Amino acid sequence: MQAILIKVGDRDASLLDGDPPAPTSTGNDPVLQAATRQVGVPSGGSASLSLDFETGSALSAIFAKVVGSDRYAEVLLGSETQSRSGTKALETVVLDIEVPSNIGAGEFCVAISGRDAENLVSNVDTVCFDVDNAVIDALQGTWDFACSPADDGSESFEGSWAFDGTDVTVTESVWPNGSCLGSPEDSYSEQLTVAVGEQVQAADGEPASEIDIRNLTEGGFFYSLVRVDGDTFQLARAPMGSGSSAEMRAVSFELNRTFTRPTDSVDPASACFNPVLWQDGTEYTESDRETEGGAFVGEFTSDFTVFTDSSFQGRPATRVFVQDSGTGLADANEYFQIDFEVPSINAIADENLQGMNDGFVSDPGELLRFDLAPGESYSYTSTYTELGAEVGDDGTATVTYVGRETITVPAGTFETCRFDLTTPDGYRETEWFGVGNGIEIAGENEGPGEPVTRTELLFAEINGEPIGEAPGVPDGDFSSLMPGTYAAAIDGDEQATAFELNEGGAGTWSFGEDGGSITWEVTEDGVLIIAFSGGGTERYTLTSGDTSAGTVLIEFSNEPDNATGTWTQL
After folding, report:
1. N or C: which end of the chain has fewer CB within 10 A?
2. Which H or E element spans position 136?
3. Mean pLDDT (whole number) for 419-442
4. Is 561 exposed, middle or buried (0-12, 13-18, 19+ CB in 10 A)?
5. What tens digit of pLDDT does each residue of 269-326 get?
């Protein structure tokens, strides 16, 4: 009974102990008949019940008691005492019952009676109320909200709300920037309690429910609208000082924050974040083949070493030293901010170490988040400044986690997480990261009017452990080599040499703008010999893999030079 409010018009009920006055039996007693004996009411809402009394004098009080309660409500209506000369008349009273949202879904019944001005008490009529707790029920459990910037962009928030009935535990982190980058400057919890009211039509023309939120930790009370739709709910705050009227809320429904269920669903992107890649002392190697517009560009191998206790221009960072393995790429330092909890990777700088002014600084950074479910997106804005330049350019990008895809590259077949990036100027980029290993298995990028540049993994290893199917166990020699187009990438060359091996032992070669005719043969011991029409012979020995596997490791001999490299079928 204590949780239910009862009134008639502007007259509130008083709660009294015990039972209301018993019906009298004079023959001239009031007769009560409720308009209905079953009423539906939303949790946190109210219902109006029409009561018809036949009485010989004006009603002076209404009594209502929730069945099973030890208290009852009394609403005093007035002090009128005149009788109606023994003639009964119909008097209608509207009883308003408000049900707070902490009343669970179900049914409760109320025994109702009335007393007239002559102290005669009517019969008891019992009305039952079906409570629909749909909104509160739909909100139960934990909801996450993604990064939400403050209005002025000076800070941002991210966290979760956990509903237990009408009690809410808020866990929130605050960042000193508008994109939840780096480490939060503060994290805290708050306790709230909520009450859901009537459904109204919001300013956007769609229905929403009133929700009053009281902050039990810091104090304060604010009025909102809530809209629940499956695994998403929206929360909007009414203007300060607007009160709790439905009218003010309805005209002020501006989306403030969207909540979603936690991404413990199918195929989260977090499976493609490998923390080992960002631990101090980790060493890994990647070898990739690049094409542009489908044409072969080259094969490039780099070794990476991770140093976590570093900084760049005063910003704490993880430094990754990238060393060229003889493919013409410049050694470099790349700087990242790693959040292992989210998880995310934020690229903040790249500096060339071979005297070339070919680096950049990004502030706050290029953010790649792995806390997404398939189909989820986020955007970031960063200022890009070339090293040595004084003025940078702002750039905005939207990143979407498309979901899992299985792709095949020369290194093998991998289950991957696909991310698509787009910018307002039409640039697009796609990256596929390996599930479990975190290595970029393939990538594509394309500017407006430009051909697609694609990279594919040839082989990789992390701390000495190989990734993928190639290179594999030595499986033979060049005796199984078939005519076709191949690329030989030799350590020390800036790009690969392309060979067109034709039937009958003839063919052509190209290296940049140079090229010519060749003849080729495979010796009885499986060594490939290529003779150039302009003079000179090269010998290739298979050291790992099978020529049908796409990419194999080779030894190259061209007296007096000896080197290693890869042989790839194009």
Report:
1. C
2. helix 134-139
3. 94
4. exposed
5. 988 999 999 999 999 999 888 888 877 677 788 899 999 989 998 899 999 999 876 5
Burial of 464 per CB tally in 10 Å (0-12, 13-18, 19+): exposed
Q: Using DSSP, state whether 72 is helix, strand or coil.
A: strand
Instruction: Return the closest-CA partner of residue 224 out of 214, 233, 211.
Output: 211
Burial of 468 (0-12, 13-18, 19+ CB in 10 A): buried
* Cα-trace Rg, the chain: 38
Q: What are phi and psi of 214, to 5 degrees?
A: -110, 130
Taking 60 as the threshold, does the pLDDT of residue 254 lie above it? no
Note whether 410 and 378 are within 8 A (CB): no
Structure tokens at 300: 């490039």
Q: Quote the longest CA-to-CA distance of the chain.
A: 134
Residue 131 sits at φ, ψ, to 5 deg, of -95, 120
Q: What percent of the chain has pLDDT over 90?
A: 30
**Alpha carbon distance 76, 54 (integer Å):** 18
The rounded Cα 274 to chain-centroid distance in angstroms is 19
Per-residue pLDDT band for 335 (boundaries 50, 70, 90) equals very high
CB contact set of 338 (below 8 Å; sequence gap of 6+)? 278, 318, 344, 345, 346
Question: Kind of pairing, strands 257-260 and 497-501?
Answer: unpaired
Predicted confidence at residue 429, as pLDDT, reads 95
pTM: 0.47
Asked if residues 448 and 528 have their Cβ atoms less than 8 Å apart, the reply is no
Task: Find out whether 127 and 109 touch, Cβ atoms under 8 Å.
Answer: yes
CB–CB of 15/73 below 8 Å? Answer: yes
d(CA 124, CA 122) in angstroms, rounded, equals: 7
> Tokens 């009974």 appear where?
1
Place of tokens 């008691």: 65
Q: Alpha helices, DSSP H only, in 224-274? A: 246-250
Query: Of the ranges 88-92, 135-139, 244-248, 380-384, which is most confident?
Result: 380-384
Question: How far lies 149's CA from each of 245, 391, 399, 522, 534, in Å?
Answer: 28, 25, 17, 65, 66
Please say whether the beta carbons of 142 and 160 come within 8 A. yes
Residue 247 has pLDDT above 80, yes or no: no
Burial code of 223-233, b = ≥16 C-beta within 10 A, e = fewer?
bbbbbbeeeeb
Helix, strand, coil fractions of the chain, as percent rounded to 5? 5, 60, 35
Q: Is the peptide bond before 23 cis (omega within 30 degrees of 0)?
A: no
102 vs 2, residue with greater confidence: 102
Q: 3-class SS at 503?
A: helix
Do residues 318 and 310 lie in contact, with contact meaning Cβ atoms separated by under 8 Å? yes
Q: Give the closest residue to 385 by CA, choosing from 407, 406, 365, 412.
A: 365
Structure tokens given for 474: 């030595």
Structure token digits, residue 45: 């809402």
Helices (H), 331-396: none
